[in-house]
Amino acid sequence: MKVKVSTKETIIEAAISLFNIQGYDGTSIRDIAKKAKVNPANISYYFEGKQGLLEKCLVLFFEAYLTYLEEEVSLLAYERPDYCLKRAVYKILSFQSNNHLLSRLVWREVSLDSQIVREITSSYLMKERFLYKKLIEAAIQENTYSISDISFLIIQLKSLLTMPFLNGQYLREVWNIFPQDRYFVEKYYQHIDDWIDAGLLQKTKMVNIPI
Amino acid sequence: MKVKVSTKETIIEAAISLFNIQGYDGTSIRDIAKKAKVNPANISYYFEGKQGLLEKCLVLFFEAYLTYLEEEVSLLAYERPDYCLKRAVYKILSFQSNNHLLSRLVWREVSLDSQIVREITSSYLMKERFLYKKLIEAAIQENTYSISDISFLIIQLKSLLTMPFLNGQYLREVWNIFPQDRYFVEKYYQHIDDWIDAGLLQKTKMVNIPI
After folding, report:
1. Per the CB < 8 Å rule, is B112 touching A20?
2. Fewer CB in a 10 Å sphere around the end CB: N or C, chain A?
3. Which of B118, B160, B170 sits opposite A110 (nearest CB)?
């Protein structure tokens, strides 16, 4: 059994790497099999072809990613909500950093207007929306934001969280910054933390200032 | 001549649309010709094939996009730098909103780790870096930021500017927000304006508060 799991993982890793370099449509089953050093028949057997392999990548990513959000939402009843939000941010950054190639693939695929991707991700992304809303609404307790403002705040937070991983190559080549480094997560987290404090929680904070 | 220009534009529009739906590798010259209602030979004649067409899209986008940044950098000597920065932000949002399909294509292609895209865009993205740095360094005159902080601020600003256009479908389907609407630009601009004031200029402002 151990060998089989390892073959599956090898295939997935080869696929992630090639999809990132050549694009999904530019990569054949044969390319993946060659890189993974397996027989092409294995890919059909384990994943029912190239689309199944892409689906597997998306599922792997979103199942883990949403777990971090769910964990923190479930802690809202017991802990300071701004801590829960920030811990979710930190966990998601770390997860993406540890899986930077998979993250890039997923965020790029999600930007494509294809029926397949839409079907696979719409459930995950609706769930993601629900969880972010829970966290942010709890964090800005004294709610001076409109519903439309909250949508925009979540969109902004999401863009801050995903962009470095979607554009890993840009960060490396233009800025000499490496999103897969532990150092990056620590440093970048501080900036999002500032954004949460200054941008998101500011209105609440201002209300709290003793006059 | 007019007819020729129009044919070129029709081909470009068909290509942008199909690249967004099927991906670059998933789209053939034949598909584009069919959608544009032209003879496939026209595409070879005008663009030297599919790659030439993609290059044309990237060049069209970046030439316009960088002009907005250049304009504001050249005004830095005459106007308040935070105004220049904010005007650049507004112009870039409007430009992307008016060309939302092209914007999505470009930002997605740039995220791909391909040699071709790397060569075409590295010059543009290095120039973009230079111009953003000029604008942001001028805006935060009383420079309490380190060089590494400025890199991160630019990366954050870029993610806020590009994400809604890269993920137009996500915004539509999950949030019922339409980045191609004028209303979106006005509303979203306010949020980035807040981010610039609270996150980016905050340190400077705090120094300016009369005690």
Report:
1. yes
2. C
3. B170
Q: Using an 8 Å CB-CB cutoff, list chain B residues near A149.
A: 191
Q: Which residue from A21, A111, A202 is facing B114, i.e. has the nearest CB?
A: A21
**Rounded distance, CA B100 to CA B182, Å?**
12
Q: Give the pTM.
A: 0.84
pLDDT at B2 over 60: no
- Mean pLDDT value across residues B184-193: 90
d(CA A104, CA A20): 7
Chain A residues in contact with B113 (beta carbon < 8 A) = 20-21, 169
Please give the Cα distance from B137 to B131 (Å, whole number): 10
Please give the ipTM for the structure prediction. Answer: 0.80
* DSSP notation for A89-156: HHHHHHHHHHTHHHHHHHHHHHTS--HHHHHHHHHHHHHHHHHHHHHHHHHT-S--S-HHHHHHHHHH
Burial of B40 from C-beta contacts in 10 A (0-12 / 13-18 / 19+) = middle
> Number of CB pairs < 8 Å for A and B?
134
Residues 6+ apart with CB under 8 A from B41: none
Domains located in chain A, CATH noted: 1-48 (1.10.10.60), 58-208 (1.10.357)
Would you give the end-to-end CA distance of chain B in angstroms?
67
What single-letter amino acid sits at B117? Answer: V
